[in-house]
Write a structure and sequence with these properties.
This protein is mostly helical and about 375 residues long. The protein is built from 15 helices and three strands. Strand 2 and strand 3 form a beta hairpin. It comes from Leptotrichia alba.
Length: about 375
Amino acid sequence: MFQNQKLMIEEIKNNIFRMDKMILLIVYALVTISTVFVYSATRQSGMVIKNILWIAVGSILVLLLSYMDYRNLKRYVWHIYGIGVTLLLLVRFAGKKTLGAQRWISLGPFQLQPAEFVKVGIIIIIAYWIVTKYKDGINNLQDIIGSILPAMPLILLVLIQPDLGTTLITVSAFLFMIFLYGADMKPIWIIGIVVLLSVYPVYRFVLSPYQRTRVETFLHPETDRKGSGWHVIQSKISVGAGGALGKGVLQGSQSRLEFLPEAQTDFIFSVLSEELGFLGSSLVLLLYLGLIYEIMRISRIIQDDFGRLLLYGMAAVIFMHVIVNVGMTIGLVPVTGKPLLFMSYGGSSFLASFIMIGIVESVKVHNK
């Protein structure tokens, strides 16, 4: 028995040794910055304590998942599928509605947002499906549709919450995965061109007046300063007020005076930009770039297609969250409520993000 324990301890040590230290360094740099700016945005020590608690739980998840061979996920794909459908149906019929969207399940004091975890499950399902059914490649539109078909019920359940942001991120991750897998993307480019050419006719002749008003408010938020344009206007003020070097940590006026809504979640990057300025916010974006680069670097040195597809998907999810969240804060994309991973306050987002890192580390550890 003592010998078995000794072997297990030795295996854990070897596992930790093989983990990608650069990924861990970047992730813990981001969550440390997050903790500082969650406090700056809220001035509530309770939120800081919760942030640290989620980091601790997430760290345990990373260790456990990295110890597990990621290839075992293939055995549990349909369990993951079933859990995902169950959670999303619970949201649909018993979820909590907030700010016009039904995305949360109340578990006592904790609000669970299943879509944050389901998007990780969708990446696993798509990766499994592609390596199982499309070993000879994805060669036409029929193959492209077929490779995402099993995940469509989950994606549609997320879409009708409504959660357009997560839907966009998930579909983009899928396209990223099949592109790097070597799929023939010509049908996607043709569809993309058709969609672009149809944007104005749809806007002009299909959308109802109130829908056109929403589009116009997104393009020109100053036309509804006290309504739907308020968030973006205040966020732009925060970002612009930071200048080159920022006002200093804890010195941001927009969040402190509560002009900036959801400062600790959706608009954490605005708080950071005001207090650290262009230089500080650029350094944070470089951390995300470094994280994505390191994940993609691992994908180039492993031989397993399933592992590579998982890495492509995780990198794409992180990339799209950065694009959507940062774009939202400066008015380049509509406000969708998507968090900045490892930065925005929120237990579901934090834990799902750490699960992704755990899977990435598992791929690294279990490919010699």
